[in-house]
Amino acid sequence: MTTIYDIAKKTGYSPTTVSKAFNNYSDVREKTRLDILRTAQEMGYVPNAHARTLTTKKSWTIGILFVESTGVGIRHPFFSAVIESFKQVAVAKGYDLMFISKDVGGKQSGYLENCRTRGVDGVVVFLSDYTDPYFQELLNSDIPTVIMDFETTQSHTVCSDNSAGALQAMEYLVSLGHRRIAHISGGMNTFPGRRRQLGYEKALDQWDLERQESYIVTGEFYTLESGYEAMKQLLELPERPTAVFASGDLLALGAIMAVKDSGLTVPGDISVMGYDDVDLARYVSPALTTVRQDTALLGSRAAEVLFDTINGSEKGLEALVLPTQVIVRDSCAPPAVTGR
Amino acid sequence: MTTIYDIAKKTGYSPTTVSKAFNNYSDVREKTRLDILRTAQEMGYVPNAHARTLTTKKSWTIGILFVESTGVGIRHPFFSAVIESFKQVAVAKGYDLMFISKDVGGKQSGYLENCRTRGVDGVVVFLSDYTDPYFQELLNSDIPTVIMDFETTQSHTVCSDNSAGALQAMEYLVSLGHRRIAHISGGMNTFPGRRRQLGYEKALDQWDLERQESYIVTGEFYTLESGYEAMKQLLELPERPTAVFASGDLLALGAIMAVKDSGLTVPGDISVMGYDDVDLARYVSPALTTVRQDTALLGSRAAEVLFDTINGSEKGLEALVLPTQVIVRDSCAPPAVTGR
DNA sequence: CAGTGAACAGAAAGGGCTTTCATTCTCTAA
DNA sequence: TTAGAGAATGAAAGCCCTTTCTGTTCACTG
Asked: What is the pLDDT of residues B47-106, one digit of tens each?
C-alpha cells in the first residue's frame, strides 16, 4: 500500500508537502503539486480514509438507520425510494452511505454506540417504532440527524403531510358524491397511521359526513392480508360504506380483494382509495386511486437539511412537511344509486 | 470523546492493558478486565473504528457495488431482496454495509479506488453492465468480491440458474399444450437476459417447437413499456404465438396489457409467463405465472461465500448456481383450440 | 543596503488503537 | 532458600494522515 511517505521519498519532498499537495494548500508551488500528483498516480496511491478520519474527525459517511418490524427491510418501497434520492444528493456532496445496525461486532449495543464507533457525520432515520429506547438515546445525542415520517422537536424531520393527504383523499371521495366513507387505518402506533386517521376524522367534520365507530377498522402492519380482513368487517356492517379510504396501498389492495371475493365490484359497488402510490398501484386492476408522496423530494430535502446541519449552518431545527397529491385511477367512482 | 488513555489513567493500568482487556487477551487477570470494562462503561467509552482499522487493516465493512442504467437504484426489487438477505448474514457476522460509488469526495475515480480508500474487507457486486472498465479494474484487484447474476472465472459468483429457469418455464408451457411459444427477451447485453434466451432456445430444440426468427423480440431495460411494445409486434405476426415467455415480470405485465388492449384475453387467447416473481406478480390480474428466483438464498449464500474468502478459506473460486421454481398462477392456460 | 513580506517547504506533534517484546511479580519445586 | 516457570503488566513503535508552527529563500522597497 502506497502512502504519502512513499511519495515523499520518491519525489524528494516531505510528507507534509505531499499532503498539502493533495489538499490544495496554497503554499505548494504548482509545479511541485503536479509533480507530486503525477508520482502519486504512477505509484497507484490511494488515500486512506481511516487515517484521514482519525485526524480530521470527519468520516464523509452518513448512517442509515432503518428498522421496521415486518421483516421486509430494504425492500420496503417507501424506504428504498426515499433513500435512493437521498443517496444521490449525498454522493454528489462526497458522502457515502452506511447501514447502521443495533449490534456492532456481534455485541449487543445500540444505534448511538454504533454511530460513534463508526464515526458517521450524520444519520438519516426511518423507524416504525419511535419509542425504541436506543433511538431515544441517539436523539438525545449531538449527532446530526434527520428523521423521516415523524415529527419531534428534538431533531430535523421531513415527512409528507399525512393529515392533509388524507384530507385530500377524502375530498376526492366526497367530490364523487360519497357520504358513507370508512377508513382502514394503519393503526395508531405508527406516526403516519395516526396522522392519516386524523385527516380522515377531520374530513368527517369538515364535510359533515356520517360518523360511525365501526367505520374505522385497523389493519396491522399495512399488509394486504390485514386490509382484506378489515374490509371483510366493513362489508358485514348493516350500513355498508360506499367508499373506503385505506391508510396504505397494500391495505387498499387487500380491501379490493375482499370486495371482489364477496361478489361485489370495485368501483361499481364500493370505491377504494389507497395511500402511497407504490409501484404496483398502477399495474393492478382496477388501477388504484391513491395519494402519492413525493419520495424523491422527501429524500433530497432530507439530505439537504442534514448536510446543512453537518456543515454548521445555524438555521435551527427544520420540520419539513411536504405536500401530497391525489393520483386518480380506476378504483373510485361515484356511489351507486341504491334504493333509498 | 473517551479513549483508552482516559480509561488507563482512571484505572491506573496502562493503555496496553486496557486494549487487551477489550480484546479478551488471556494475559489480563479477570479482576483487572472487569475493573477496566466497568470503568469504560461508566466513562461512556466507545471504541474508534477508524483507529482500529488503521492498525489492524480490517474495517468490518462490506462494500455494495450496485449500478444500473435505468435509475431505479435501490428500488430495484431483485437487488433489494437479495441485499436484504445478504445484510442479515453480514450483520450477524459483525460487518456493516456501505454503498460504494464511483466518485469519492466529489472527484471522479473508480470503484476500486473508493474501495481501497474506504478499506472495505469485501465487495458484493450487482451490475447491469459488466463490461464497465471500472468494474474490470476491481475484478483484477485482490479485494474479495462476490458477483451476483453473472458468471466469470475471476471472482466468486452467485446466480440463479437462468437457463434452467427458462427451460422450466418453457416446459410448463409445453405441458399445457403450447407449441408456438414466443420470447420477449431482456436483450443480450445483460447476463441473465442472455441465459434466459439461451434456455428458451434450448427448449425449442428439446421439444422440437416451432422456431421462428420473429418469435424472439427484445424489450429493452426490462420495462413494462418495452414489454408492451414487444407484445404489439408479436400480435401482428401472421402466425401468432399461443404463449409468450417473457424474460422479466415487468415485460410480462406490459405484454399482458398489450394483449388486453388488442381485445384479446390472457390466458384465454394468449398465455403469458414472466420471470422473477416480483412482489406485484401476485397482485395483478390475472396473477402472473412466473419463475421465482430464491432471492433470500442468493443473498445468504453470497454472503457466506464472501466471508469465507475474507476469512482466508482456500476453497478456490465458487460459482454457485441456484435452482429456480415455476410459480403457477393465472396467466397461463392451455392454448385455445382454434380452427385447424 | 538593510529590511520586509510573500512564497515555499518541512519538522513535529498528534489522532486512538494494536501488538511485540521486555519486564516484573508470584508461585512452585528442588 | 532459590532457580525457574508462569502469570500479569507495560513501554514503545507503528498504522497513515493533517495541521500548526517554524524556517528558508528570494524579490523588492525605501
From this structure: 999 999 999 999 999 999 998 877 788 888 889 999 999 999 999 999 999 999 877 666
CA distance A1 to A47: 10
Residue A48 Cβ < 7 Å to strand C: no
In B172-287 the beta strands, taken as DSSP E runs, fall at 181-185, 216-218, 243-246, 271-273
Please identify which residue in the block is written with the cell numbers 377531520: A202
- Residue B330 belongs to some domain of the structure: no
Tell me, what CATH number does B247's domain have? 3.40.50.2300
Strand pairing category for B103-104 and B243-246: unpaired
CA A173 to chain centre: 27
- Using left for φ > 0, alpha for ψ between -120 and 50, and beta otherwise, residue A131 falls in alpha
Residues A164-186: pLDDT tens digits? 999 999 999 999 999 999 999 98
Q: A30 and A110 in one domain? A: no
Question: In whole angstroms, how far apart are CA B124 and each of A238, B192, B225?
Answer: 56, 17, 30
**Nearest CA of chain A to the CA of B223: how many Å?**
12
Residue A62 phi, psi dihedral angles, 5° rounding: -110, 130
Q: Which nucleotide is nearest to B50 (CA to C1')?
A: C16
- Looking at the fold, whether B152 and B300 belong to one and the same domain comes out as yes
Nearest-CA distance B116 → chain A (Å): 7
From chain B, pick out residues whose CB is under 8 angstroms from the CB of A68: none
* Identity of the residue in B99, B280, B285 whose CB atom sits nearest the CB atom of A87: B99
Residue A333 is assigned to a structural domain of this protein: no
Q: Are A195 and A214 in contact (CB under 8 A)?
A: no
